[in-house]
Amino acid sequence: MKKIKILIEQTLMVSFMTQCYVSLYGLLVMKKYGYQFDWYIPGSIVIASFLCSLITVFLLYGKSDRKNYSILIHYIRVIAHFILLYVIIMGIGYLCYWYRGIWGFILTSVIYVIIYAGTWVGTILIFRHEEKLISKALDNIRDDD
After folding, report:
1. How many DSSP H helices and E strands does the chain contain?
2. Which of 76, 92, 125, 136 is 20–30 Å from 144 (CA)?
3. Helix axes 2-25, 41-60, angle to 10 degrees
4. Where are the domains of the chain?
5. How far is residue 9 from each of residues 53, 71, 98, 137, measured CA to CA in Å?
């Protein structure tokens, strides 16, 4: 159940952040040149976000407990995670024409790094909030006893 919750949270967070980027890009860059987005772009973003969330759940939140492996293994998993997600995003981006040319590739790569970092920050904030709620509930239970 926890993996499903993480999968949904990650998909929604990444999709929202990507849709915000696409909206700003459309308003600031594409509008002045008369370009338009194709009808399938929002759906392809959600599909890419879902695939990235699946990899996140299986690679970073797998069966093995985080305490059972060293910090080196953790960093290797995070680097592999970054690379796999980059390949998925750039692959789907190429197939769905999210970018055109070398400058589009570079801009999409930069935005990928920003969204990746933003997703980590968002995930940390969600986990901290959940920890506070659990701690508060435990304190209330102790106070009642």
Report:
1. 5, 0
2. 125
3. 140
4. 2-144
5. 9, 25, 24, 22
At residue 64's C-alpha, the angle toward residues 61 and 65, to 5°, is 80
> For residue range 29-60, what is the model confidence (pLDDT) as tens digits?
666 677 777 778 888 888 888 888 888 888 87
Q: Residue 18 in contact with residue 45, Cβ under 8 Å?
A: yes
First CA to last CA across the chain, in angstroms?
30
pTM of the model: 0.74
Does residue 10 contact residue 116 with C-beta atoms inside 8 Å? no
- Residue 63 has what pLDDT? 64
Residue pointed to by tokens 């759940």: 57
Rounded Cα distance between 67 and 71, Å, is: 9
pLDDT band, very low/low/confident/very high, at 62 (cuts 50, 70, 90): low
Task: Please give the sequence-ordered ranges of beta strands (E in DSSP) within 31-126, or none if there are none.
Answer: none
Cα(115)–Cα(21) distance, integer angstroms: 9
* DSSP calls for 121-138: HHHHHHHHHHHHHHHHHH
Whether 127 contacts 87, CB under 8 Å: no
Query: What is residue 66's predicted lDDT score, i.e. its pLDDT?
Result: 57
